[in-house]
Amino acid sequence: MASPGSEPVHGSPRKQSRVVIRFAGDSGDGMQLTGDRFTAEAAAFGNDLSTLPNFPAEIRAPHGTLAGVSSFQLHFADYDILTPGDRPDVLVTMNPAALKANLTDLSPGGVLIVDTDEFTKRNLTKVGFESDPLEDGSLASYTVHRVAMTSLTTAALAPLGIGKKEAERSKNMFALGLLSWMYSRPTEGTERWLRDKFAKRPEIAEANIVAFRTGHAYGETTESFAVTYEVSPAALPDGTYRQITGNTALAYGIVASGLRFGLPVFLGSYPITPASDILHELSKLKRFGVTTFQAEDEIAGVSAAIGAAFGGSLGVTTTSGPGISLKSEAIGLAVMTELPLLVVDVQRGGPSTGLPTKTEQSDLLQAMFGRNGEAPLPIVAPRSPSDAFDATLDAVRIAVTYQTPVLLLSDGAIANGSEPWRLPEDGDLPETPVRFATEPNGPDGSFLPYLRDPDTLAVPWAVPGTPGLAHRIGGLEKADGTGNISYDPANHEFMVRVRQAKIDGVTVPDLDVEDPDGDADVLVVGWGSTYGPIGAAVRRLRALGHPVAQAHFRYLNPFPANTADVLRRYRKVVVPEMNLGQLAFLLQGRFCIPVESITKVAGMPFGAAELAERLTPLMMKEEVSA
Amino acid sequence: MTAIDLGLPVLGGLDRVPTEDEVQRAKDFTSDQEVRWCPGCGDYAVLAAVRSFLPTLHIKRENTVFVSGIGCSSRFPYYLDTYGMHSIHGRAPAIATGLAVTRPDLSVFVVTGDGDALSIGGNHLIHALRRNVNLTILLFNNRIYGLTKGQYSPTSEVGKVTKSTPMGSLDHPFNPVSLALGAEATFVGRAMDSDRAGLTEVLDAATRHRGASLVEIYQDCPIFNDGSFDVLRKPDQSESRVITVRHGEPIVFGNEGRYAVVRKGFGLAVAPTAEVAPEDVVVHDATDTELAFALSRLSDQDLQHAVFGVLRRVDRPTYDDLARAQVQHAVQDGTADLHSLLHGTDTWAVQSGNVQIPHD
């Protein structure tokens, strides 16, 4: 593991394999932007990377308070990494609050860069520092760089004649410039990006570029930073890459699905953290025939999507857990009417309003069972930001093949986190247009809207406007075949079971097990965004000589056909999840196999070291019961 | 920020719907399902009126869709041989919005009741109206919950004794027409279930109006609120109560026009026609927002007066036309290319483990 900041090397930059950097400041300090930009530089350089934005739900909490601290962590490396990193090696703090909130996470001996201008008595008192940590020796175990970022920035911008407040706001670009110098990052991209972003206000673009260059030059010319570092590009599988967040990948997956299945996309959505960016992204993509509808509420969002699906569009609704609660009845209507629908739940901390900006995986059982009656639907979960693209395509495939709503379970870490994405080749997305019903399918030219495909048990998709197929659908139980209202006991029994059988019969790929040495007797299984931390933890355990296998569920309903076989092969099955054991509950209930649950509900992903530590006791053989 | 002016022409409500040349009859619109409302229910009269009215639109039957919520009236779609969806409580306007936005070739009707539209679905109703989605909304108002067997509704008069209010209901009722006008509806009308001609006239205007049309239909529930509109039906009582308005005509009513509507302060009042100067009789102007609202206030919960006909009808771009125009505008731009979308502006290539630094 890299640990910057020991011996200076003159001339060429010091090589590092991987680095974790965290930018922390006030909500208004532009830390997310700074982190995003540094990420883009790392991506452009060819590093593998993974990010973890962490910000409060309040837009602007009181200035300089702990509640208002916003941070962005970036892990970049010259090999394939799986998580945003446990602890930062480098912590950039723009004020005392950011220092207080983040210092305990900094790796021992790590580098701390501080904006000294903000370390005033008043700011220190505000967060409960009795003495100035920059002076009282409490930071002795770190390599501390004291930089007057605010005043250096305002001094550099003085000739531009812009206001002091505006000038101060550019200090985040000073920090970015400094870090870009330290890590030998390319700078042209950022300058170009600033010019684009502030195209309408060239004076602001100029100020930010000057601040950025000033930070860069500060590193180059002052002696306090004797060392620069280099993290070489990562040797990833061949292909063309870009950096992408989970929400963007998911939005692109929706667009690609529309093109692939030949359906116009209709999104009905109500703004909610952390899903709103999907609505924002799709609303910019109308050129792909995408209609976005910002509804009056969550229920209207899904209802409009159901209406659009009835009319032959790809109906989509996007939300987070509280929105799923509100949409439940309507999702049940889509189950009952058997219309294709994509329901996206970007999970956040719950219950109720919970932790809007933090991640959790606690909606699995809601997705599975959160509707009245027997209302099964397929559940698909992406494992990482870039995987959200493929998972979306697959969720839509299931929806239109089986005429069913599908729940796509993303989460806050996937949504806002980013990583390199190996782009699909042009031929990877073959167009397979959906076929609507056009002809009567019953005796004497009649149309039976609930006559099923013998293989998939799907009902026909017969859209209004098709002559001869006029029919009525609804939430009341319907007679097999005709779809007429039916209260017949035997019919209801049959229909409940056939709807269940349809979902049970959804074809999903087998569960893959990663067991490099083939001798593992412990299997760690996860779903969703725990993929990265589990993978990283398992690597650590293997490095310590523990034989351990990993498997990951993309399909939570139905489970892959080989699930029971896989689980039974291992002495112990361990399920780490960011909830109180929901997948563990499902696996035990479904397969009667005991599993060990490792759970965390802190609003933050598992750290690799943390998870490895919690897994270690489970590696011991003597635990085997007779 | 300013919106792009999409320069839309003024259209009629059915202008994008394919027409039918063959002669259609009421029975063509009648499904094979047995109608299961209580004997004497006002819904029968409305169903009969709609079945005979639909053929007069000369549109393709398969391009006609009825979407309903939950309640007695929401069974309506099952009895028509068109496309239909009997959905969930209160959500029909939202479902119909998704359908209407994506399918300009359909004539979309919403069938709802006072509980469905004004209680559980109140939010969807007002937003469909303000957006002006091209829908025709039939609001069956029987001032009671029928399907749940007789609880008071948001249009029940204060003091209503029902199963859930044995000591009388406390809440002040909605006036659906005032509500719709307050929600910026571009078309608001009212009709009586038993008045086939009046109902058909308002329905026809509503359907041909491009935008959200709300038609409140007073409808009798013989089981739980029997005779609730009798004062408007019995000739001896209705004469001084029923006010029928037509655009451009002076508002007089009663035998031989005995009564007239006149201005009073910021509102309206009823006076004996003989006692007012002819020029003081209000002439109905369906494009006058204030007049429509004042007319709606003439109808109170005690049914002292009730105004029927088209109270308001104005043209305003519809949400669905605008939404489609935005998409079309963007599509015509011709820059939709999935490859470039996915690639974005910053990509890098990796070949055989060697990274190539990008040069874009």
Automatic annotation (TrEMBL), chain A:
Single annotated GO MF: oxidoreductase activity, acting on the aldehyde or oxo group of donors
Q: What's an example Gene Ontology biological process for this entry?
A: response to oxidative stress
Q: Pyruvate/ketoisovalerate oxidoreductase catalytic domain: from which residue to which, for each copy?
A: 28-216
**Pyruvate:ferredoxin oxidoreductase core domain spans which residues?**
520-583
Query: Keywords for this entry?
Result: Oxidoreductase
Database matches in InterPro entries: 2-oxoacid/accept_OxRdtase_asu, PFOR_II, Pyruvate:ferred/Flavod_OxRd, Pyrv/ketoisovalerate_OxRed_cat, Pyrv_Fd/Flavodoxin_OxRdtase_N, Pyrv_flavodox_OxRed_cen, THDP-binding, Transketo_C/PFOR_II
Q: What Gene3D superfamilies does the entry give?
A: 3.40.50.920, 3.40.50.970, Pyruvate-ferredoxin oxidoreductase, PFOR, domain III
The Pyruvate flavodoxin/ferredoxin oxidoreductase pyrimidine binding domain sits at 264-477
Q: Where are the transmembrane segments?
A: none
What Pfam families does this protein's entry cite? PFOR_II, POR, POR_N
PANTHER family according to UniProt: 2-OXOGLUTARATE OXIDOREDUCTASE SUBUNIT KORA (PTHR32154:SF20), PYRUVATE-FLAVODOXIN OXIDOREDUCTASE-RELATED (PTHR32154)
Q: Which NCBIfam families match?
A: OAFO_sf
- Protein name according to UniProt: 2-oxoglutarate ferredoxin oxidoreductase subunit alpha
From TrEMBL, chain B:
Is Oxidoreductase among this UniProt entry's keywords?
A: yes
Q: Which GO terms describe its biological process?
A: cellular respiration
InterPro entries xref list: 2-oxoacid:Fd_oxidoreductase, THDP-binding, TPP_enzyme_TPP-bd
**One Pfam family cited in the UniProt record for this chain:** TPP_enzyme_C
**Tagged with keyword Transferase:** no
Family annotation (Gene3D superfamilies): 3.40.50.970
GO molecular function terms noted in the UniProt entry: magnesium ion binding; oxidoreductase activity, acting on the aldehyde or oxo group of donors, iron-sulfur protein as acceptor; thiamine pyrophosphate binding
- Lineage, top-rank taxon, reads Bacteria
What keywords does the record list, in alphabetical order? Answer: Oxidoreductase
Domain (Thiamine pyrophosphate enzyme TPP-binding): residue spans on this chain: 70-217
- What protein does this entry describe? 2-oxoglutarate ferredoxin oxidoreductase subunit beta
Give the organism the record lists.
Geodermatophilus amargosae
